[in-house]
Write a structure and sequence with these properties.
The chain has helices spanning 2-28, 31-62, 68-97, 112-132, 135-165. The chain is mainly α. The longest helix has 32 residues, at 31-62.
């Protein structure tokens, strides 16, 4: 179990690093950062697969037990890892999209900073919450998705208005 937890924590750290790198890329548009983000993608995928395989193996062995707590913890760990890897994939997708911007200053008109702060705050708490089994903190992390949806809706409406103006359509 310690190996699984160790790989889970590595995955969480690497995902958090991807988020920070992606945030930095949007601020600085350094091509080296873009390459760093895409280079880490396979490593993160492999970490997720390693944890996933170990989880499935343990779940199979635990399924015979009447104590559901370890089984539920293993299932939760698997779900968290799948979502961490998915978030890291979003970072790669965002990074790749920056190549199509004609101006590095363009993105600065939109409040992506607040969204990244919400993401970073939530991801940073994942391992602590899992270690402590803190349900209220886990729900706070889940609520971040709703906050992000609201932030995105506001930005999306601004983007739509800017599209109607017809300026910088390629960037939009």
């Amino acid at each position: 179990m310690q190996d699984i937890i160790g790989n889970f924590k590595l995955l969480a750290i690497e995902t958090e690093n991807q988020i920070m790198l992606t945030h930095g890329l949007l601020s600085d548009f350094n091509i080296d950062v873009l390459e760093k983000i895409t280079a880490k993608d396979d490593y993160i995928d492999n970490l997720k697969t390693t944890v996933e395989n170990a989880c499935f193996s343990n779940i199979y062995n635990m399924a015979k037990s009447s104590d559901m707590a370890p089984l539920n913890r293993m299932r939760a760990l698997h779900i968290i890892c799948v979502n961490l890897e998915r978030i890291a994939d979003f970072c790669v997708n965002i990074a790749r999209q920056t190549q199509y911007l004609t101006s590095k200053d363009f993105i600065q008109k939109y409040d992506y900073q607040s969204m990244f702060m919400e993401i970073q705050t939530s991801i940073h708490r994942v391992t602590w919450v899992f270690d402590h089994g803190n349900l209220s903190q886990a729900l706070e992390i889940c609520r971040a998705e709703f906050k992000l949806d609201d932030m995105w809706a506001q930005t999306f409406n601004i983007l739509l208005e800017d599209l109607k103006k017809g300026d910088e359509v390629t960037n939009l």
